[in-house]
Design goal:
Helix content: under 10%
Organism: Hydrogenophaga luteola
Keywords: Signal
Order of helices and strands: HEEEEEEEE
CATH architecture: Beta Barrel
Strand content: 35-45%
Oligomer: single chain
InterPro entries: DUF2147
Pfam family, one: DUF2147
Protein name: DUF2147 domain-containing protein
CATH class: Mainly Beta
Length: about 140
Amino acid sequence: MTLRFRLLALVCGALSLPAYADGADEAKGLWMAPEGDAVIQFAPCAETASALCGTIVWDKDAGTPADTCGVRIAQLARFEKDAWRDGWVYDPRDDRKYKGVVRAKGNELRIRAFVGVEVLGQTEQLKRVERLPDAPQCKR
């Protein structure tokens, strides 16, 4: 086997692996927003258990007029190939919904919001957290 053939086989094998996500359940859990000002919980949607929903469960502005506790920021219908797809993401900063894709791997979750096609979007990277910060508390 020539070196060129081995390199080609290695590249083809690497390209056949999922790009980022480990599996459908990897996105479930608590995730800290990039600015550290909110925690989003991703879990099955109450009304459609096969879908994934993201809800703000901790907000540094809890109890103030800027409070976003309880706001659903994502709803994605299905997991396919490497990501949760076919749904929307909501940005409370600009009060707009976008098409969305969520990918998770280990302690990182990436939310991609876009209009039209995915390549023309913007990505936010969140970090997994084990528990909510102590204060302030969202009212349930």
